[in-house]
Write a structure and sequence with these properties.
213 residues, mainly beta, Jelly Rolls, four-stranded antiparallel β-sheet, 15 strands, globular
Length: 213
């Protein structure tokens, strides 16, 4: 997989008619890392791939491009992070490493979806519009979305989706979802024609919080 500058290339998996999501790279804007927000003490971690240090939660120089159609020539690039609860739980918050690149509206929508054949299927909660996202190339502030408690089943895959409206306010958002570097894992993207699955060597960074059970 290539690391591209903001002038980005489409990558194709030649064995399939699948477009890879696009990786963006930026220089770190500050060596000083700000600790992430503290979640409500009553919330438990249902899923997390974030680093264990509050000032080292994710890679703040590399991530998936995330853009509305107004910022990407009419073609949206939406990204989803899979998560699988260990046991029956109720999700009420997600915290993800989504950042803004300084152009367009500083806001993104976060939602929770059921899984359908390895990609996001039925909407369970959201969208919640999160504003005032951190600038890309910084660490470690997170985009936080609160939901009315939604039940999820243990050992079943779900998705946290980051997207924008197709028109109007927020449709010109441009940013990235920062990485946690891990072995190849199932992920999903949407270029405006529907969700598709792919295996990536990088995973979107974030965590899912709520109550258990």
């Amino acid at each position: 997989m290539f690391v591209c500058l903001l002038t980005l290339c489409h990558l194709t998996l030649f064995a399939q008619s699948v477009i890879n999501p696009r990786i963006v790279h930026t220089t770190e804007k500050s060596a000083i890392h700000v600790p992430s927000q503290e979640p409500d003490a009553a919330l438990k971690k249902i899923y997390s791939n974030l680093g264990t240090s509050k000032t080292g939660l994710y890679d703040d120089t590399n991530g998936w491009l995330l853009a509305g159609p107004g910022a990407n020539g009419g073609s949206p690039v939406f990204v989803a992070m899979p998560f699988t609860p260990k046991s029956n739980s109720h999700v009420s918050q997600v915290q993800v490493a989504v950042q803004w690149n300084g152009t367009g509206a500083n806001q993104v929508n976060l939602s929770i979806y059921e899984d359908t054949n390895g990609v996001p299927g039925t909407l369970l909660a959201g969208p919640v519009t999160v504003t005032n996202l951190p600038e890309w190339g910084t660490c470690c502030t997170l985009a936080v979305a609160n939901f009315t408690s939604v039940a999820v089943t243990g050992k079943t895959q779900y998705w946290v989706v980051a997207d924008t409206p197709l028109t109007g306010t927020g449709s010109d958002f441009s940013g990235e979802w920062e990485f946690v570097v891990l072995p190849a894992l199932p992920q999903a993207d949407n270029f405006g024609t529907g969700w598709q699955s792919f295996n990536g060597t990088f995973e979107s960074a974030g965590e899912v919080l709520g109550t258990i059970p």
